[in-house]
């Protein structure tokens, strides 16, 4: 799957059949790919999908804290549990996860 | 249908062993609690349709389903490496007692649960596989991976029969157990990938750009640099639900 194929019409991470591609993390510089535009030449798209995370080696990682929106969500498939970021980090070898099920407000709440 | 795929040393293909049908659990469960998890030794009462032939065959014990597997096929040796999938990850095999046996399985065998076939080939620091036999119990079978991994390991040298570690996997986690050691280096995973894909009509994934990038992701943490102990990411997450 090439990067160009990703963003031809609708970004694959919004329309893919694979839930591990439809969930992930947005990093710096991800605006272009997220909005369906071509990222700058030679630059990464800034989008780290759950599928990509599952291919990493995090077996020495004991704790992963994801301070980001909806990182605990995913597709539920039968008895197999949730297909999303938590599965990806588990496959990669991380032992414990702290995730977030809801959307986080961008603005800091007033106390 | 739940089945086990048994891969033994010297064999090219795993043996398919039917265990039980998912219906059996419903037939065996009391009506008031139809979604009770599988529990070893839970008595199996006949359903409204009368005695279940599967239950009769399995000795009227729901979770004696593994009896045929343990009794007939897993003879010899002590160590058992298994990969539970689906509902089977809720089944505590340690406490399971096969038909007409006087001991639980944990009394007789050393059981090591893996969470992925990947653990057969991804190494840790102290490196021996603790088993001779590999049993993958799965509802959706991924036998090519098991097959290829074992074939590759046999090419590299026989799996040692002893000198293993007890798995520290807890039953609630399906991915946290990386303490089971394997003997090969991370870079060799690509060779296993080729073995898996060759001969099955697929091109090797390393030819694809996304996999090249994945390999670079792997090398970032595997090339002598262990992954961090604590990983804290403060960013934006996304999950796009299906159009349905």
Can you walk through the features of this model?
The complex is a heterodimer of chains A (111) and B (244). Chain A is α+β, with helices and mostly antiparallel strands and 111 residues long. In chain A, 23% of the residues lie in helices and 19% in strands. Chain A is globular, with a radius of gyration of 15 Å. The relative contact order of chain A is 0.18. Mean pLDDT of chain A is 78; it is low at 1-9. Chain B has 244 residues and is α/β, with parallel strands linked by helices. In chain B, 25% of the residues lie in helices and 15% in strands. Chain B has helices at residues 22-28, 53-57, 67-73, 105-108, 143-156, 189-197, 209-222; strands spanning 2-7, 15-20, 79-84, 110-113, 133-138, 230-234, 236-239. In chain B, α4 links the parallel β3 and β4 (110-113). In chain B, α5 (143-156) crosses α6. Chain B starts with a strand and ends in a 5-residue tail after the last strand. The model of chain B is unreliable at 26-47, 51-64, 123-154, 156-189, 202-211 and 219-223 (pLDDT under 50). Classes of the chains: A alpha+beta (111), B alpha/beta (244). The interface between A and B is large, with 50 and 43 residues. β3 of chain A pairs parallel with β6 of chain B.
């Amino acid at each position: 799957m090439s990067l160009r194929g990703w963003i031809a019409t609708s970004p694959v991470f919004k329309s893919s059949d694979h839930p591990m591609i439809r969930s992930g993390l947005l990093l710096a510089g991800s605006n272009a790919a997220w909005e369906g535009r071509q990222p700058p030449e030679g630059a990464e798209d800034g989008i780290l999908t759950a599928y990509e995370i599952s291919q990493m080696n995090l077996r020495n990682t004991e704790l992963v804290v994801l301070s980001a929106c909806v990182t605990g969500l995913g597709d539920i498939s039968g008895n197999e549990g949730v297909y999303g970021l938590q599965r990806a980090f588990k496959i990669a070898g991380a032992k414990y996860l702290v995730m977030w099920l809801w959307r986080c407000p961008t603005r800091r709440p007033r106390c | 249908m739940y089945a086990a795929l048994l891969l033994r040393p010297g064999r090219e293909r795993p043996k398919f062993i039917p265990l039980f049908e998912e219906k059996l659990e419903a037939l065996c469960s009391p009506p008031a609690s139809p979604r009770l998890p599988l529990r070893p030794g839970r008595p199996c009462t006949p359903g409204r349709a009368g005695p279940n032939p599967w239950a009769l065959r399995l000795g009227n014990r729901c979770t004696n389903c593994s009896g045929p597997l343990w009794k007939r096929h897993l003879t010899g040796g002590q160590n058992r490496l298994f990969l539970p999938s689906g509902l089977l990850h809720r089944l505590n095999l340690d406490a399971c007692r096969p038909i007409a046996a006087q001991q639980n399985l944990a009394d007789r065998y050393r059981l090591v649960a893996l969470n992925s076939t990947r653990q057969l080939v991804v190494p840790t620091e102290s490196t021996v596989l603790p088993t001779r036999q590999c049993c993958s119990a799965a509802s959706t079978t991924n036998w090519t991976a098991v097959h290829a991994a074992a074939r590759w390991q046999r090419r590299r040298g026989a799996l040692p029969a002893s000198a293993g570690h007890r798995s520290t996997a807890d039953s609630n986690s399906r991915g946290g157990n990386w303490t089971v050691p394997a003997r090969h280096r991370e870079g060799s995973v690509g060779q296993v990938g080729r073995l898996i894909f060759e001969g099955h009509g697929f091109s090797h994934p390393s030819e694809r750009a996304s996999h090249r990038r994945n390999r670079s992701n792997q090398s970032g943490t595997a090339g002598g640099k262990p992954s961090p102990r604590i990983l804290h990411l403060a960013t934006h997450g996304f999950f796009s639900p299906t159009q349905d």
